[in-house]
Amino acid sequence: MTTEASPAVRLEVADHIATVTIDYPPVNAFGLSVRDGLTQVFAEINQRALAGAEIRAVILTGAGERAFCAGADLKARTSGAPVEDYHLYSRRVRDCFWAIYDCAVPVIGAINGPALGGGLAVAAVCDILIASERATFGCPEINVGLLGGGKHLTRLVPQLRMRRMYFTGERIDGHEGYRLGFVDRVVPPDQLMDAARDLAAELAAKSPIALRLAKEALNRVEFMDLKEGYRTEQDYTAKLNNYEDSREAMRAFVEKRAPVFTGR
Questions:
Q1: Residue 263: inside a domain
Q2: Domain span holding position 117
Q3: pLDDT in tens, 59-75
Q4: CB 171 within 8 A of CB 114
Q5: At what angle do helices 32-50 and 208-221 cross, to 10 degrees?
Q6: 49 and 69 both lie in a single domain
Q7: I need a labelling partner for 54 at 20 to 30 A (CA). Which of 20, 108, 160, 185 fits?
Q8: pTM of the full structure
């Protein structure tokens, strides 16, 4: 089933996997329709994932070959058309990023081309990144009269590398991202979606209860210290143990068979 959250964002759900595609030619710029479309579609995914086991993993990608998401829509900003109040605009941008970050199930970023500025931030709030050989990552805002994205970039690269990239607008490719540890795999462009679907299918075979609790736990502990973080994870383990899926996983391991999860 394919639906549109906005003219610039498509949602397709099949085999427990939601595929979200940014489709805003020519370079999938992070304009208002992309921003609001992503917010809406991830709200729908959350609703459907929390209602049952229909959606267990998400793939987020861009349409076409020119970009995953090429950052701010500068043509719109300089067109002279009316713009949103700055504080409202900024809040809605944050809402978009947090809708992806807080998604109830894991989000795989299938980065088909440049992820720049706002597009870099979209990639950075995913859980796992697979990059096409055409992918690049960067925060070029300083070169176009803007700022922002440095904190998102620290989810991907070390602090001092972030500062170099931020001050210079330097871009790095997927192979450098792999070397730095934030890209899981780099593949030829025609293999990107197959690689993302294979990983999504592996995730979708897990217990949907365990996946949702694992995602929530990791988000909660990300900025905690070691002691408080591990204590929180123990609390989530205790919560998972109340579900039949947890007991089924243990039985299946002991009996040397594949588990049969029911989402209960």
A1: no
A2: 2-204
A3: 999 999 999 999 888 77
A4: yes
A5: 130
A6: yes
A7: 185
A8: 0.94
| Torsion sign, CA atoms 52, 54, 58, 63 | negative
For residues 24 and 31, is the Cβ–Cβ distance under 8 A?
yes
Give the tokens for residue 84.
Answer: 């949103």
Cis-peptide, bond into residue 158, ω within 30° of zero: no
Q: Which tokens is 3 given? A: 């639906």
Task: Work out whether the CA dihedral 141, 91, 29, 152 comes out positive or negative.
Answer: positive
pLDDT greater than 90 at residue 1: no
- Secondary structure (3-state) at 139: coil
Q: How confident is the model at residue 191 (pLDDT cuts 50, 70, 90)?
A: very high
If asked whether residues 172 and 249 sit together in one domain, one would say no
Q: What's the domain count of the chain? A: 2
DSSP 4-51: EEETTEEEEEETTEEEEEE--TTTT-B-HHHHHHHHHHHHHHHHHHHT
pLDDT in tens, 122-143: 999 999 999 999 999 999 999 9
